[in-house]
Write a structure and sequence with these properties.
Blueprint lengths: L1 H22 L2 H26 L3 E5 L3 E5 L21 H6 L1 E2 L4 E2 L5 E3 L7 E5 L6 E4 L5 E3 L13 E7 L2 E7 L8
Antiparallel strand pairs: 1-2, 1-7, 2-5, 3-4, 6-9, 7-8, 9-10
Length: about 180
Amino acid sequence: MIELITVMVVMGVVGAIGAARFFDKRDTDTSQYLNQAKSIIRYGQKVAIAQHRNVYVKLSASSVGLCFQQTCTAANVVPAPGGGNSASSVTKAQCVLGSPAVYVANWMCEAMQTDVSTVIAATPALSNGMFYFDSFGRPYNSNDSAPTSTFTGPLTLSVGGGASTLVVTVTPETGYVY
């Protein structure tokens, strides 16, 4: 009888902990957004190499987007490979350009879900919240001019949400994103 009660108490504790984690989707949303941001950054590097031109990665506290110039306008956005971004309500609210702010449907830009905490704590700090890949796929701070980069070590971008903080790393010489 004591063993049965002990097993039931242990199962109750495990069930309570498991249920709380099962219904909390912040960790999953954080992981999904990190993978999405990583994919967008990788795509920016590939476009820079393929088109032999600079591609700027525009990072904000709530979105990641790609542009062909430092001043990101509707005329110089990097188009999404599928013809458009996700067009979710969050993306429509955050991926806007110009004054007045206009949503650009074909822009390679995605916003994070509301339960993912502040995105992009970059180390080292980014100028204007941007960095770019040159035509060889190497990363530079937005105010750097090639071939001199202020990125002496890896660029790390932190995404937090739930109980976890995840990191995207961009290597300085090759631009490898992982």
